[in-house]
Amino acid sequence: MPKRVVDLREQGAILDIASYGRRGPGHRPLTSAEVEHVSRTVRRVPEVMIKVSGGARSLRGVQAHLDYIGREGEGVIETDDGALLQEKGFEKALVKDWDLDLDEHRRHTQRAVAAGRKPPKLVHNLVFSMPKGTPPDKVHAAVKKFATEKFALQHRYAMALHTDQGHPHVHVVVKAVSEQGERLNIRKATLREWRQDFAQYLRDLGVEANATERAVRGEVRLQKATGIHRAMLRGASTLWRERAHSVARALASGGLRPEPGRERLVATQRDVVRGWNAMAQLLDDQGHRELAMVVRRFVERMPPPQSEREWIGRELQARLARARAGAGGLSRTPGDS
User: Mean of the per-residue pLDDT values for the chain?
Assistant: First the structure.
């Protein structure tokens, strides 16, 4: 399975730390906004998350997702024109109002069907979230402003706030084709810009929020690690159970072998560390000595990079150690039922 490795030398970062490690003479001084961004990052201010959770290619799929975020008529859906929808079956009227039936008909051209191509998405499903403890009303207000700024009078959209999973998050369904006939394409650069804007809207409401790449923050654990861990513990993931057994066998036979992507992980973090150290020196030069000290401590506390298999291996070894110490850990392999 291919690993997702962030290489800051190849893709732009919201906080371009890597470039500071390569800065030459006459590098421009930091702006106040950059200093504030550095401060938020090293202080571990909560990071915003925007996730593209998919997108329906059929009317049935659109209706099913709208029904889900509307809690089957129990929740409230807010549309781009300010309407509040709660009644059972609202999704059918909304699909008709958005002319999605016409969009679906247009895409099924004879040429596309003959070529066997997947039909394009009718909608994009987005999730905006913040960690537990963030005021849900502030998250909702920030997402509402975001949607107004990005989509109003162009792409039809509907949104719903959910608070039942421990952290406030807002589901947004956006019509893929605008009223002007232009298709919304969501790229990595788009998401980086959106995260910056979402974080700014939250800060405007008095909520501390940041938007920085995971590698720049020194967080080397995979994005799915927490979910994987929970799935393995309850035996709900066959895929991750198999991976855990594979790692366990490797540990029992002498240890894990180096993975192809490991060198790139190490190189990425080396660039990040070099960049942060250059940033600390630049902050010193500009008189921000206290922040420079915080940056250096931040770098010192960065954990070493680890691959997916290394993370699973450490989890297995930690659980085995707890079991042996009688601390209530389970001796079986994660994922066993």
Answer: 81
